[in-house]
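Q&A log
Question type: sequence-to-structure
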Amino acid sequence: MRLTTALNMTSTPVLYSRGGAVPFSIADLFASSEQGAWYDPSNIDTLFQDSAGTTPVTASGQPVGKMLDKSGRANHATQAISAKRPTYTEGSGLSWLAFDGVDDAMVTGNIDFTGTDKMSLFVGVRRLTDNTAVLVESSANWNLIDGSLLLFTGTAHSGVGDGFSTAARGSQRATAYQFGATDDTFEPPVTLVLSASNDISGDLSSIRGNGVAGQNGTGEKGAGNFNNLPLFIGARNASKLAFEGNFYGIILRGSLSTAAEISAVEAYLAAKSGVTL
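Response status: OK
Response body:
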């Protein structure tokens, strides 16, 4: 099934499949009360220069202190420290948040994922360096906190190389690579759409980069569900392993997505990121 994209930067985008199939909207991912978050930097109305959300972003080059969640769950991301705010940037018909690889980061309040042990994560991103960095992490440190999710890039763990990896844990963690899924195909600078699926009870982590499947992680994850913790974007605990590059969109959902949903979201983020799948 080949997907085309109809985009409206100020409303919910709808993805249509050719052949008359029922339209699919990103909002459909949250239609059954799934917990999660949806961040869309191309929708400038969701961006504010301050963490209180009182000063709107109006032009390229301005800092972003608050980014609204479009999922309907009100899991907004903020940065209270002005020097650590990413920059809203426009170019070649695209819009993104630029993170400096030094201290830029954003964080949400606690997001309650305690009702599920399954998670889907989608990111449109441009990686500029081969530094080890955290893209998204659902706790201050997945190594130490049960019920955590991680998406990172770099050489921090054996076998990961310069690619991207996802990992998750319930009550048990042996080594990160056992729980992770990697893709070493893409060297920086590179723009791509990442799709990550993590299932604690199923002991499975999987990742795709621009539609290409990486290596599955099948190590024991222990028991239990995901946790009720903040989501960190661009750095671990908003303080280290900072990412240098661009975020074009992030979608996190407390459920595993179907193959059709994954393809539709990848098509949506590809359009946002300037990627051809």
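Response note: The helical segments are 176-179, 259-273.
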